[in-house]
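Form 7-S
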Amino acid sequence: MQENKQENKPYEKAREWAALLCRYAGEDDAFCRDFWERLTRSEGVFGEFVYYLEHRDFRCGYKVAGYSVIDIMVWQMDHFKARLDRGGDGMKDNGDRMLLMAFDTMLRMEQNPQKYVELMQSETGTDYPEKY
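Output:
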């Protein structure tokens, strides 16, 4: 019985942290439930999520179409910067949101890798027609 409690501890800790991360990121309960459901179905992304929770660093051992969660986060940060240039969307002071969206995007990328590979290879967030 004690062994089961120890095995479930990382899972419960991750569930609690996911809920807090969603709340800090400004997401509602529906988003949080959906995110958790998708996260627990993905062994690779879940492993990265737990590693980040335990170490506050990226392991980058799991990749989708050659991209790690940090690659996705860097790509998204470029887009967040572009949104700030255009008037912002609340990302400037919300690192929790940026982190959550990187994991969320990786989960979505597992389902449709080609879409995200094309976006990551063709889009740069700071280049848009009205910038200059």
